[in-house]
Amino acid sequence: MPKPVHHVFVCSQSRPEGHPRGSCGATGAGSVYEKFAEMLAARQLLGQIALTQTGCLGPCHVGPNVLVYPEGILYSSVLAEDVASIIDQHLIDGSPVTPKMAPAEIW
Questions:
Q1: Which of 12, 13, 24, 74 has the greatest number of CB atoms lying within 10 Å of its CB?
Q2: In this structure, which CATH number among 3.90.550.10, 3.60.21.10, 3.40.30.10, 3.20.20.80 belongs to the domain 8-17+29-100?
């Protein structure tokens, strides 16, 4: 596999219901990851963009969280419906999706 241009990490941390920190897994991270995998494969981008499920990225209270490198941009409260804009606008066109970026006080 060639070196990817971008690496997308989707937090899929799961904690028991009622845990004080919550978790991305409990707020839909699975569907976010599946949507990324589906769309990247359909667009034949998996060689250029690496996709990885990961553990906790930190700000659990605003999950699901998606981290994009090499830029180091964290997206928060990501829904499956947001994936297309992250792929099109950020990963392909190079412009971060500002409304989905994590607030500066947490990232």
A1: 24
A2: 3.40.30.10
Strands (E), the chain: 6-11, 49-54, 66-69, 73-75
- Report the C-alpha gap between 51 and 21 in whole angstroms: 25
Angstrom distances, CA of residue 82 to CA of 65, 97, 100:
12, 9, 8
Residue 24 CA, distance from chain mean position:
10
Pair of tokens at residue 38: 């589906």
The pTM for the full model equals 0.93
